[in-house]
Amino acid sequence: MDKTSRIKELVRLLNEASKAYYQQDTEIMSNFQYDALYDELVSLEKETGLILSNSPTVKVGYEVISELPKEAHPSPMLSLDKTKEVEALAAWLNDKKGVLSWKMDGLTVVLTYVDGQMVKAVTRGNGEIGEVITNNAKVFVNIPRSISYKGELTIRGEAVITYTEFERINATIMDAESKYKNPRNLCSGTVRQLNNEITASRNVSFFAFNMLDCGDEKVDATINSKFEFLKGLGFEVVEYMNCDASTISDAVKSFADKISTNDFPSDGLVLSFDDIAYGRSLGRTAKFPRNAIAFKWADEEAETILREVEWSPSRTGLINPVAIFDSVELEGTSVSRASIHNVSICKQLKLGIGDTIKVYKANMIIPQISENLTKSGNLDIPCSCPACGGETVLQNENDIETLYCPNQDCPAKSIKLFSHFVSRNAMNVDGMSEATLSKFIDMGYLVELYDLYRIDRYKDEIVKLEGFGVKSYENMINAIDQSRNTNLIRLIYGLGILNVGNATAKLIVKHFDYDVEKIITADASEFAQIEGIGQVIADTIVSYFADSNNVRILRELLKEVTLVKEEKTMEQDLAGKTFVITGSLNSFANREELKQLIEDRGGKVAGSVSAKTSYLINNDVESSSSKNKKAKSLGVPIISEEDFLKL
Predict the structure, then answer these.
(1) How far apart are CA 74 and CA 454, in angstroms?
(2) Which of 103, 361, 413, 595 is the catalytic position?
(3) Does the annotation count 103 as an active-site position?
(4) 234-262: per-residue pLDDT in tens?
């Protein structure tokens, strides 16, 4: 392939990876692979002088896509140039003082405070335009809601979810396919939720790494003075260390030594000139500012031999490939397994059993395959499911191939489904392990979910099983009986409907006023009206209840449990009315607070205006927004908050 063709190919590959990462929160290649391709592109562009208009070397990012309002930043947020060489950092500093800090791996957020109150939070977006997430930022666990500074202050920082929180949240998701791949993806989705109740439940932290000038010459003079100023106002700032060319190597090593014990994700370091005026005097290139540079770890790699690819089925039928290789030491620990994610990556790497591969830990944490040196390509994609022996199916969605088992009676699906059903956020059957469930399924005691509540039919057999006895049996029955008093939210979540997590189940149940019959018979348009539920999830739910066997299982479960409904204490004077909320609010802290009031008084809140909408709430009644236009065309009254309160 000639150099021009290779440049075009690299631009295509890198742009596809960026689009998937920034717009869809998915990864189609590792950071290691991306960096290698990016560096190759930079080298070829320098050599040939050819730079395409859509090259990632001259673009900051993609336009964000969401239902959140967008807003321009007061000044562009540019990407940083990067290096993997400590010597390059020393040369970059020359004789100047520098500040080295973590480059956290989350979602960059810009906060604006006016007269001590946080009035706005906007994501980085594409560097020039971001998404407004003010309501979500107000529930970050460590952000000050008010500060002592009077005037306007703009602060930049990273929203992150710690590994502890990441593992806690993933532990509540029994299905491997539905688990979050990494803290960054979880944080990105959490920060951009339309319902900040979900954001609050996930304990997002914010670490400040910069602020725009505040007008105080002493504070605005250095990075150190800005950090100290922010700490004095109550913000947590990124960990940082002062350095110069002679100490930068020790400073980098000091940070590297902390990675294995850090509870937050990072993907490198940032080195800035401490003298802010000097840094600004250097200007910028077309893509990068010259006052700071990023350092990315030169990942420690090890060669090993691929011995096996394990294919692990989930309750949804997705079969996940996992590489098993000769154990190697990486970053101080022994590693012998790495997720490959999907069939497409297996094919890209041209994997084969016995291949010599290179492995590394992404960000020194997550084992990944970086390269296949022999590329035999002889890996067989299973034609039969490892759990049931049934024929597998290759599915292709968005150019990503995945392997599925379509057999509805696959035992792996049963084990994962029962495990999900008894989990803490579902029916919460204490002490019911996956091993016990697997044994009961194999013995034929558990076939459908409701069989769990009829397990006493097999008492005589169970007490004779290895590891069981009368006492163990009684403890199990007590735990099952305690789970019989539950609510519809837990039950709907426990059914294991694809893409219906605990928060979505709550939205559904509240929208349909705890009426299970309405949920079973609702059409997709009714589900899609619920804010936070899109058309894809709506179609999935309707498809689930269109299966008569699924409905039968639910009705049998309803015979075994007692559902407790939240008592309504407010007057139900909004019963039968449907509201849509748009624009900024004055009398309520956020839309969720107004939504809760409407629901508490018997009303419903939808995400879009339709003929069924009773009122559109918008303080800018004369706005020319799309929702106002649609409301006017349908004859839906547009009212302000004040008008609503008079109702």
Answers:
(1) 63
(2) 103
(3) yes
(4) 889 999 999 999 999 999 989 988 877 78
